[in-house]
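Risk mitigation, structural track. In case the binding assays with S-adenosylmethionine fail to produce interpretable data, a predicted complex structure has been prepared as a fallback.
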Amino acid sequence: MSQVDRRREHLIETYRKKAKHYDLTSRLYPVPGYPQRAQRLRTVQALGLRAGDTVVDMACGTGLNFSLLEKAIGPGGRIIGVDLTDAMLAHAQDRVEANGWSNVSLVQSDAAGFDFPAEVNAILSTYALSQVPECAEVIAHGAAALSEGGRWAVLDLKVPDNTPRWLTQLGTATVRPFAWIDEWVMRRPWAAIRAAMLEELADFSWTELFFGTAFLAAGSRRPGNPGARPQGSGDQ
Ligand SMILES: C[S@@+](CC[C@H](N)C(=O)[O-])C[C@H]1O[C@@H](n2cnc3c(N)ncnc32)[C@H](O)[C@@H]1O
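Fallback model:
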């Protein structure tokens, strides 16, 4: 098994364990009282959704964004929820059934390999894309699938700028035993997400939230972009 496959298996195992209580425990994420709901709402608003729109929720987990999305797109719209972990999707399915939503499709897929349907009106990813090593590719593939004027928004955590190293280490120590945190801090995925969105989208905006511990990055499909940057063309 390659290192990439091992990492993926480990991630699935981790989220399988978390899935059952995710809706509850995520309220404590990253710390109790964190304004997660307000951040989700801002992210959905950044998409400028209209009734009837199709939206992809990338790494949707148990579907905590779905009710906000449903409010914006109505029963004539469509949500496509994508996630790597079967158990997280099973809880998303429970949510869909409990709410009687008939316009949600759930797809088990790695974000990196997901084949975005053409002409989606919006894509969002919340508290997830920084865990995907191929986040820049995912942003590019999504951007190529957007309809004219379509929007991409990413909400995720980051380390505040100018945080002294000792403070970062103290912060990460509190969330151990998640060993991947150290790798995440070193990798600075928010910088890669920012660069990829700047490269791929128009009207790019970057907003730091809650003392720089999170960011909301958003942008629109470039006008006239044929959306046909061939995957793996190396045309960057
Ligand atoms: C912290 S949860 C966030 C879930 C949801 N977006 C939310 O806001 O509550 C991270 C999710 O990302 C998913 N995930 C991680 N890596 C992924 C990948 N490479 N492709 C698809 N989903 C992935 C996990 O299975 C998990 O459901």
